[in-house]
C-alpha cells in the first residue's frame, strides 16, 4: 500500500507541475497577441492621427520585401515605393492607426520633405596649407600635401551641372528623384557644393579670382541627385540615394558621402529611417558628412538649442555647423554663425540621452563656388553673384561662380 500511495502522490505532483508549467508558458503567448501593442510613430504621424482627414500621406516602414508584402495585403494599402530595407506606403489616418496596431510593425515614420543647407567651404580652414604640405628641415620631417587624390565623394544633393572648374571630376551620375530621371542640377545647390568639395581653381581664373578651388581639388565626385527643381525632395529619395551609394561603393571607390540637407527631427535617431541609412553607410566604411542645419535662430533673433536636423543628429554622422569668419583668414574672431543649428541631440526631457553636436564647424558665410547660370538659385538671387570682369563668366562659360550666404 505504501508503495502504491507514494506512486499516486508522485503522479498527482507531476500533474500539478505540468499544469503550472503549461500555465506559465502559455501566458506570454497570449500577451504577444494583445491588442495593447502600438507601433512607435514619428511626431508628424502622431499629429496626423489627431486630424479628421481622408487624405493619404507617405509613410516609411521597415522590413523585408516578403514581410511587407504580407503586411500591405493584410491591410489592403498601397505601396508607393519599395526601398532596399523597407517601403513607402500611402495611408490615411484610419489606415495609419490600424497599421500601428499590427504586431509586426515596430515603428512608422513620415516621408518628410528635405531641404538643402550650405555649410562646408574652403574659407579660413587652412586647407591651402594642408594641400601644400610641409618641406621639413633639410628634407627631414617633410609632410606631403593632402589634396583628396584617390578619394571619391558622393554628393547626394540637387545634381551637378557641367562647369569648367568641375571638368573631369564627376565619374558617375544617377537620379533617385521620384518621377524625374534628370541628373543635371536644375536648382543649383549641388553644383555649388561640388565646387566647394573638389572644384579646380585654375579653371575659374577668368571667371572670378575670388574662387581658388575646393577643399580637396584632387578628389573625384559621384553625382547622386535626390532634390528636385525647387530644391526640395523626399526622405525616401535620400534614403534610396544612400542605399545606391552603399551598393556601388566598391565600383566607384566611394569613401565619403556629403549630405548638405535634412529635415526637422521628429523621432529618435535610433528609429529615424534617414539616420538608419546613415548607420548602414558607416557600417560599410563610408564616412558620412551631414549638415547641422540652418535653424539655430528664431525670426526675432533668439538662439535655438537642440535644433540639429536629421540626419545630422545621427551619432554615426560627422555633423558640420556653419562658422562666420567675419571676412578675415585668422581664426581669433571666428564665431558660430547665428543661423547655424546647435545641439544637443537626444530626448529633450532626458539629459542622460544628450549628445554634443555639431562635431565641427566650417566657414559658411559668403562662400564663392561653382554655379549653373540656368539654375533657379542663379535667377532668384542675382544680387549674390560674383561674375568675372567684363561679363566674362556669361560669355565664356555656360556656368558661373557665385557667392552664397
What is the strand content?
Answer: 15-25%
CATH class of the largest domain: Alpha Beta
Rg, rounded, reads 27 Å
Distance from N terminus to C terminus (CA atoms, Å) equals 99 Å
- Overall geometry comes to globular
How many domain regions?
Answer: 2
CATH architecture of the largest domain: 3-Layer(aba) Sandwich
Protein described:
This protein folds into two domains: 40-111, Peptidase S8 propeptide/proteinase inhibitor I9 (Alpha-Beta Plaits, 2-Layer Sandwich); 114-131 and 146-404, Rossmann fold. The protein is globular. The chain has helices at residues 2-32, 43-48, 65-75, 93-100, 127-132, 189-198, 235-252, 273-283, 376-380, 392-396, and strands at 40-41, 57-62, 78-83, 86-91, 107-110, 113-116, 152-157, 170-175, 220-225, 233-234, 254-259, 261-262, 287-291, 318-324, 335-336, 360-363, 367-372, 399-404. The strands form four sheets. Strands 7, 8, 9, 11, 13, 14, 15 and 16 form an eight-stranded mixed sheet that branches. Strands 1-5-2-4-3 form a five-stranded mixed sheet, with helices on both faces. Helix 6 (189-198) links the parallel strand 8 (170-175) and strand 9 (220-225). It is α/β, with parallel strands linked by helices. It contains ten helices and 18 strands.
Describe the SSE topology.
Elements: H1 2-32, E1 40-41, H2 43-48, E2 57-62, H3 65-75, E3 78-83, E4 86-91, H4 93-100, E5 107-110, E6 113-116, H5 127-132, E7 152-157, E8 170-175, H6 189-198, E9 220-225, E10 233-234, H7 235-252, E11 254-259, E12 261-262, H8 273-283, E13 287-291, E14 318-324, E15 335-336, E16 360-363, E17 367-372, H9 376-380, H10 392-396, E18 399-404
Parallel strand pairs: 1-5, 7-9, 7-11, 8-9, 11-13, 13-14, 14-16
Antiparallel strand pairs: 2-4, 2-5, 3-4, 6-10, 6-12, 14-15, 17-18
Helix pairs in contact: 7-8
